[in-house]
């Protein structure tokens, strides 16, 4: 590895004298000395050092530095010690130090250190290591700065950026980086670039950009479709709501790898097409591709979304009896969900009690949700008691269960507890893409530039659907108020605003695609069915649970979700 000398005088200028260190400060300092004692020997370390190497331990120590004043002092001393020992330009340590300075609210030192490192022409391998480490630390902005100022880049450099953005849930930036790679460099994307880009499209549910990435893959002779890319293509079209294209891709690629089959089965499951998932599973067995634990999770999910209780139980038993796959926590969770959705709430609780593994929060929340649907306050209370880290939605569910059974006093007590503990209800959000821009809405939103037109159209649609027989489901507004007030609470849910905007901006007859961060309520579900019939439009909504395709007054979920 190239050794570059960096003076520690710059670090000394920022030194901080810690007045009368506390016990905690002494503890941190001792921990730091212990970590750096590994570097006092004459050992040399390869670039790809083992995770238990001294440099890894130093990186871990730097990662523990927080924003307390004593940590700033320790960090500055630690950095000076690293430079003194000659490890100041080790790429991973540079990234760790930069990230530590950022966490300790010393961004000016972080920027200066990074600029100094890049000015020394560290080479593409070292640059890539810095970018990788920064992305691991969540420092996407600094990684972008390294990319922009680096004198030498290769395809790995770009892939680290694209993949790093995806891992840090910055999907828009990942796709923008792919576009920059194509537009401003002579380096062509490879299969890893496209796999990360497709993952970003899938998370966004952005069909247009998924098609764009797919078309890039096919240009100039195309890239070789390995199992990873085949799986990514099947997955992205399913998650973007285009299950027909997902199916076409699936039957047009090699299907020797189980992951490709899993993507198709899971896609059908999220779209509520259990019969299709069952058919694909049978084809899989016929072609002698052995299912794995993910396959069975997809099958259980498909059965759960369509109310196929006995079929789901059959696949759960098949796992261990024919394929010797022992159910994991997520499989038990899927079974609890299947039983709960099917009205077997007591049986779901009995399964939880008999599980050989400890149930997690997801399982207890599933029981809580089904207890709400089937109005079982006793089991709902049991679920809440087992939620060691109950979220706002859990308390809201319990309050709603009490309200739905007219136990207003108990519901009020839960609301008062939430207020006392500072627990706020998570707000539903919906978004729709138009002209390459994502438009986001929340309930009662008035921040959009076209708010006036949106509300005008929404009011018109509400009146027209009512004239055709739609009746608002006011039972969902679980408050002791008048029917008129309940209707007003329902009228401006985020998905209704997003739909009004989508209809306002799109041409008649075209599909409207909406995404939502939480489960859609039954009032919105029934109203959107009415709108699809009224306007003769296909409306596709992806909520937290699954896809809903509304057409001619019907939904693909068959009112079971």
UniProtKB/TrEMBL annotation:
Domain named DYW: residues: 469-561
Superkingdom of source: Eukaryota
Family matches, as Pfam families: DYW_deaminase, E_motif, PPR, PPR_2
Renumbered ranges of PPR repeats: 154-189, 257-291
Keyword line: Repeat
Entry's family note: Belongs to the PPR family. PCMP-H subfamily.
Designated name of the protein: DYW domain-containing protein
């Amino acid at each position: 590895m190239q050794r570059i000398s960096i003076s520690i005088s710059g670090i000394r200028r920022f030194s901080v004298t810690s007045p009368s260190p506390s016990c905690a400060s002494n503890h941190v300092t001792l921990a730091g000395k212990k970590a750096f004692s590994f570097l006092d020997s004459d050992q040399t370390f390869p670039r790809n050092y083992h995770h238990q190497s001294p440099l890894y331990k130093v990186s871990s120590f730097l990662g523990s530095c927080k924003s307390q004043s004593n940590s700033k002092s320790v960090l500055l001393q630690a950095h000076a010690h690293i430079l003194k020992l000659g490890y100041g330009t080790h790429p991973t340590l540079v990234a760790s130090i930069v990230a530590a300075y950022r966490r300790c609210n010393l961004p000016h030192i972080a920027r200066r250190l990074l600029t100094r490192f890049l000015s020394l022409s560290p080479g593409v391998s070292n640059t890539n290591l810095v970018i990788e480490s920064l992305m691991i630390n969540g420092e996407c902005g600094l990684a972008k700065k390294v990319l922009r100022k680096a004198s030498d880049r290769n395809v790995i450099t770009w892939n680290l950026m694209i993949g790093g953005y995806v891992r840090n849930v910055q999907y828009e930036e990942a796709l923008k980086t792919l576009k920059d790679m194509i537009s401003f460099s002579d380096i062509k994307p490879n299969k890893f670039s496209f796999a990360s880009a497709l993952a970003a499209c899938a998370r966004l549910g952005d069909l247009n950009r998924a098609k764009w990435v797919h078309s890039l893959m096919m240009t100039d002779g195309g890239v070789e479709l390995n199992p990873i890319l085949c799986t990514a293509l099947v997955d992205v079209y399913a998650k973007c709501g285009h299950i027909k294209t997902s199916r076409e891709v699936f039957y047009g690629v090699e299907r020797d790898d189980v992951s490709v089959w899993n993507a198709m089965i899971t896609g059908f499951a999220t779209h509520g097409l259990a019969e299709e998932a069952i058919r694909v599973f049978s084809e899989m067995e016929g072609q002698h591709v052995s299912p794995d634990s993910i396959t069975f999770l997809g099958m259980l999910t498909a059965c759960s979304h369509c109310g196929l209780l006995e079929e789901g139980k059959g696949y759960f038993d098949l796992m261990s009896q024919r394929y010797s796959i022992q159910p994991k926590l997520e499989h038990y969770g899927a079974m609890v969900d299947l039983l709960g959705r099917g009205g077997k709430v007591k049986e779901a609780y009995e399964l939880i009690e008999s599980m050989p593994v400890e149930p997690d929060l997801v399982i207890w929340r599933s029981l809580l949700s089904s207890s709400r649907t089937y109005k079982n306050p006793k089991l709902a209370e049991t679920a809440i008691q087992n939620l060691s880290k109950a979220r706002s939605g859990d308390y809201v569910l319990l309050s709603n269960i009490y309200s739905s059974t007219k136990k207003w006093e108990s519901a009020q007590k839960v609301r008062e507890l939430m207020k006392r503990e500072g627990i706020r209800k998570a707000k539903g959000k919906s978004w729709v893409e138009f002209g390459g821009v994502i438009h986001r809405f929340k309930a009662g939103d008035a921040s959009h530039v076209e708010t006036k037109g949106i509300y005008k159209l929404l009011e018109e649609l509400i009146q027209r659907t009512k004239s055709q027989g739609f009746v608002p489901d006011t039972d969902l507004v679980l408050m002791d108020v008048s029917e008129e007030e309940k209707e007003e609470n329902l009228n401006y849910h985020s998905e209704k605003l997003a739909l009004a905007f989508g209809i306002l901006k799109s041409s008649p007859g075209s599909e409207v695609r909406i995404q939502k961060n939480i489960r859609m309520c039954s009032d919105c579900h029934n109203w959107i069915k009415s709108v699809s019939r009224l306007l003769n439009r296909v409306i596709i909504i992806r909520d937290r649970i699954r896809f809903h395709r509304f057409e001619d007054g019907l939904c693909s979920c068959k009112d079971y979700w």
